[in-house]
Design a protein that fits this description.
heterodimer, A: 408 residues, alpha/beta, Peroxisomal Thiolase, Chain A, domain 1, twelve-stranded mixed sheet, two-stranded antiparallel ribbon, B: 375 residues, eleven-stranded mixed sheet, 11 helices
């Protein structure tokens, strides 16, 4: 692999290592469970139980079970008051801290789209329906998007400055990409980066109102795709200057080698059909990593399974790459919005470590308009050196990161 | 890294435009409060709204359905670019990064969207409103209007988010491919926000905001936007932006603020633009200021302009910049003369002043600061 460079083309010496990772998603709690679910290509989408979906077209989502999520929480008042999103972040950070107790980050960059939205919903409903508002101060206090990040840091005595990025569905990848740039620039040695989002009624109904979500199975890139399903989760990566990590003698799980961001300004919800935004993000990531398209062995696509997203992304991928394996792991757990980029970065990390291609389940027929090598329905062994992860969001915001297998 | 302020834009309850708002502040003007109510609410709230006249003659097709927050932000951003003489064209669309600092976001449309769901069920949810509820909707409108195709970020936080956005701009501009960073802090008002802050015992029923008062009677919310275009070179520099600090309890805020002030006051400081707003923030800032830099003049614009939360940090930076440029300070309104801080209670000259600190203590656990200097 070529030496990394900053996106201005100047050579820099800093390589960025991933030295720990934590994840909570419908695919499992922690790396081991997640790996097992990925290998088995599990469908972890289930009927929505948190709120009524009787009036919605879509009735399913990828959900993290509360019995496990809340099992280890602090039983004191504080623990009971925290939002589910805080508990997801605490679980994800716990796994990171277990792997790297001495990590001591200088900065934390986290992506999200909706913070503690369901508490906002409860507050509004209670006000409107003149119900009990005794707990309103707690709901309000736990609604802001930075709160789950601060809760997680506080749970482990971490007090790093936080940047909470809300770039819609690209937030998680933007957070990791920005953190990568911060370390690579030499301004920081150790940065935590990731994303979280917990499912909420308002967001669920919102996607349903756009007819972006489907009453059927989520089938990314399939000829018969009919839309997305929502998911939820949290994931955190510990990024460190490689030299610093090696001096500390910590194991390096992988490297982040490139980041690309673009804004396509086409429409507030729809991608430019030409695929120019995703293409620019991928090109900029390649340029940032100074590698060629031939060095990319797998693409974890944004792949929401909406007609428009998959067409634009597929067009951009096939224009840039020649037959590289592609899958959307959202087929297994739904779209976790601000968490998606971070959760999928963990999937890429596991794919690099264990040398396999995560699958794109529910795939039955190729779309004649998309020239893609889909990893259909089953996990496949593969030799992976570099993998690309895409995330695109409302407002035309696009982000891609490149991760590499660590070679000393 | 030191960055320079190349241009500024300001949309406030005292009108639009840096020079005109500054002039009104120098004259001791205060925004006029209006009351807002809600069909199911049991009480009205006093707020400082941006007057309709502030956005007269300003329109863009992209903003036809957009909420007030996007209109405020766009107006301020266009003014900042104009003030800097920077035009965005095909040559530099990738070279300007955009950071939005937001706390509550598009609360008007969010409430309206969810109201329909609660009132009439999911089938009545509007697909036109939903995209405007997303935190980055204002940023996407602005990037589309300006044609920015590179880095665009929406940063969330409390009242300290504006200063945090400057710190993020420092990180972004470490990349030499970026020539400018446009930072916009913005907020819009809604009854629901007032009610939420009232339940937190932070809101006052009616003006005035009495800064640094022992009674902590509360704040009045306001709305608007502030925009700052950062460049690498210029006459007014952001010498140092302190990373955001956190306090888990309000009583702990003072220690975080002291640390920020100590780090920023390694050089002689003439002025501190405080975030005092009539709440617990005031006592924390007062104690920190007395302990670390007791002699610097202290100014807060919140009695005149209100607490604009996500926009507040940018407003404070604009105030500090104007004070250094014009070498004078507006009066701090409604302050008790007995308060043991060097507050300018009337229009006050600052001849020879070179450095100012912006101190920003948010209402949700965050605090930040930065130091400005005339080069």
């Amino acid at each position: 692999m070529a030496n990394p460079s900053s996106s201005n083309g100047k050579k820099v010496s800093v390589r960025v290592a991933v030295v720990a990772a934590g994840v909570v998603s419908p695919l499992g709690f922690g790396l081991a469970e997640t790996l097992e679910s990925l290998r088995r290509a599990r469908d972890c989408v289930s009927p929505v139980t948190r709120f009524s979906v009787t009036q919605c077209r879509c009735k399913t989502a990828g959900q993290t079970p509360d019995d496990r999520l809340l099992a280890g929480r602090d039983e004191g008042l504080r623990g009971q008051r925290l939002h589910r999103a805080s508990h997801m972040m605490i679980q994800a950070l716990k796994e990171v801290v277990t792997q790297q107790p001495q990590f001591n980050p200088e900065l934390t960059v986290i992506g999200t789209t909706s913070g503690g939205m369901s508490y906002g919903e409860r507050y509004y409903r209670s006000l409107r329906q003149a119900e009990e508002l005794r707990h309103a101060p707690t709901w309000i206090a736990n609604y802001p998007a930075q709160k789950p990040v601060l809760d997680a840091q506080a749970a482990f005595g971490i007090c790093a400055p936080c940047q909470v990025i809300a770039n819609a569905c690209a937030s998680g990848t933007n957070a990791i990409g920005h953190a990568f740039e911060c370390v690579r620039s030499g301004r920081y040695q150790r940065v935590l980066a990731g994303g979280y989002d917990a499912i909420s009624e308002m967001v669920f109904v919102g996607f349903d109102s756009l007819q972006a979500s489907t009453p059927e199975k989520c089938r990314p890139f399939d000829r018969h795709r009919t839309g997305m399903v929502l998911g939820e989760g949290a994931a955190i990566l510990a990024l460190e200057n490689l030299e610093s990590a090696q001096q500390r003698g910590v194991p390096v799980l992988a490297e982040i080698v490139g980041y690309g961001i673009s804004t396509d300004n086409f429409h507030i919800t729809q991608p430019n059909p030409s695929g120019v935004g995703p293409r620019q993000a991928m090109e900029r990531a390649l340029q940032s990593a100074q590698i060629s398209v031939n060095e990319v062995d797998y693409i974890n696509a944004h792949g929401t399974a909406t007609v428009f997203n998959d067409a634009a992304e597929g067009k951009a991928i096939s224009a840039l790459f020649n037959g590289v394996p592609v899958s959307s792991t959202k087929s297994m757990m739904g779209h976790s919005l601000g968490a998606a980029g971070a959760v999928e970065a963990v999937f890429c990390l596991l794919a690099l470590q264990h040398q396999f291609l995560p699958s794109n389940i529910n795939f039955s027929a190729s779309d004649d308009d998309l020239d893609l090598n889909i990893v259909a329905n089953e996990t496949r062994p593969a030799v992976l050196r570099t993998v690309l992860s895409n995330s695109f969001g409302f407002g035309g915001t696009n982000a891609s990161i490149l991760m590499g297998k660590f070679q000393a | 890294m030191s960055l320079a302020i190349a241009g500024m834009g300001w949309v406030t309850p005292l009108g639009r435009g840096v020079d005109s708002v500054w002039e009104r502040l120098l004259h001791g003007d205060e925004a006029s409060a209006v009351t807002i109510s809600e069909e199911f609410g049991d009480r009205p709230y006093s707020v400082f709204r941006v007057p309709e006249s502030a956005l007269t003659g300003f329109a863009h097709s992209r903003l036809r359905r957009a909420s007030a927050i996007s209109r405020f932000a766009t107006a301020a951003a266009l003014d900042a670019l104009d003030a800097a003489g920077v035009k965005i064209d095909s040559q530099n669309t990738e070279k300007i990064a955009l950071i939005f600092a937001i706390s509550n976001g598009g609360v008007i449309y969010t409430k309206r969207f969810y109201r329909d769901i609660v009132k009439e069920g999911a089938q009545s949810a509007s697909p036109l409103l939903f995209p405007e509820t997303v935190f980055n909707a204002p940023a996407s409108h602005l990037s589309a209007i300006l044609g920015i195709t590179g880095a665009t970020y929406t940063l969330l936080g409390d009242g300290a988010v504006g200063v945090a956005a400057i710190k993020m701009a420092e990180d972004l501009m470490a990349n030499e491919a970026i020539d400018h960073c446009l930072i916009v802090g913005t907020e819009e008002l809604d009854w629901l926000l007032c009610d939420a802050y009232r339940r937190w015992r932070l809101l006052r029923a009616a003006p005035p905001i009495e800064p640094f008062s022992k009674q902590k009677r509360g704040m009045i919310l306001s709305e608007g936007a502030g925009a700052i275009l950062l460049a690498r070179e210029g006459g007014l520099a952001i010498e140092s932006a302190h990373p955001v600090g956190y306090f888990t309890k309000r009583a702990e805020a003072v220690e975080i603020l002291k640390r920020i002030l100590r780090d920023l006051s390694l050089r002689e400081i003439d002025l501190v633009v405080s975030s005092a707003n009539g709440t617990f923030v005031d006592e924390a800032e007062c104690r920190a200021l007395k302990a670390v830099i007791p002699n610097a003049l202290v100014y807060t614009g919140k009695p005149a302009l209100g607490e604009s939360v996500g926009a507040a940090g940018l407003w404070q930076i604009i105030l500090a910049t104007q004070a250094l440029r014009s070498a004078e300070l507006p009066p701090v309104l409604h302050a008790d003369p007995a308060i043991a801080l060097p507050l300018p209670l009337s229009r006050t000259p600052m001849t020879g002043a070179r450095r100012a600190i912006v101190l920003s203590c948010g209402l949700n656990q965050q605090a930040a600061g930065l130091r400005l200097a005339i080069r």
